Amino acid sequence: MTAFWKALSVFVSTIIGVGIFGLPWVAFKSGFFVLIGYFLILGAIAMVVHLTLGKIIVGTKEQHRFPGYVKQYLGRKWGRVSSVSMCAGLFGAQLAYLIVGGEFLANLLIPYFGGTRLIYILIFFAIGSILIYKDIKSVSFTEFLILFFFFGILTFFVVKAVPHMNPINFLQTNFKYVFYPYGVIMFALWGTAILPEVKEILGRNKKDLNKVILWGICLSVFVYLVFIVAILGASGTITSEDAISGFGLALGGNVAKIGFIFGLLTCFSSYLTLGLTLKKVFWYDLKLSEKFSWGIASFIPMALFVLGAREFISIIGLTGAVAGGIEGITIVFVYRSFLKKMAGRKMRPAYFLLSIFFVLGIIAEISHFFWG
User: Is 308 helix (H, G, I), strand (E, B) or coil?
Assistant: First the structure.
């Protein structure tokens, strides 16, 4: 398998994570065509932001994770701020993967082996932590295999859903929830943290990073839309927050079991790659030891779960809007400094509009979180 396909597999597997399971629910609450509008706008914005960070990564000789680039171009103080915001976002994502991935594993295995849901969440955590301890290259082929089976199960879902689809399920719109999808879609499209890893996998072919980003985001959006159409079209009013439970009720048979496998694959693949990224942030940029960095990356999400953070829609919505928004704003200012230092050029004013957009998104998401 070539470096390009390995890199694309890791990038797409990171983007297509637990966020996919919240999308049919927010489509049901706000309306399918409202969600289409969000994808058109946020998909374009996500592409611009990822490509911008890609330029910075390829154009910088030093090897960093995101906070390291911020420190190099904006100074130590901003580097610390970006470290906190990035880690908060990654911990939120890891927590969501742990919650939903563990639940899918429990739903899949409890009928055969018994036990409690907590046991299976711990099993998910333990296996993931062991693999996070290893280097990214040792799991990139695993990511490719997971992605291959992922598309196989998605195809199965579509085939099963088509006879049960009702066009009425796509026509309802509730403007009370018009801002509801923002954070979830931001979360579902965000993969900036993994880009330094992607560049490492590409090796000498680092100029292919733009191609990986373009194909990766387009492929992710396509998969999301196919998944939403299948789940919402067949489930209708019994669409569930985790997508799979309601879909299983609508179709019956063994569809739910296949769905739990589907969910487990997507959550586990992203849990691995973002866990590796977190480890390397602490290891490379904060200069902690490798083992201690692994411990922080692995055990903080589990600690948050034990403390009671278990509502995954709220977690991914807030994480996507706030952490993703802060990161997007930071990338704009890093890019401005990068252009000035590396090429003596000024950034186009249109980039500042992105910053304003992210600020408004953060305000809207926080307002919705506290006041509904």
Answer: coil
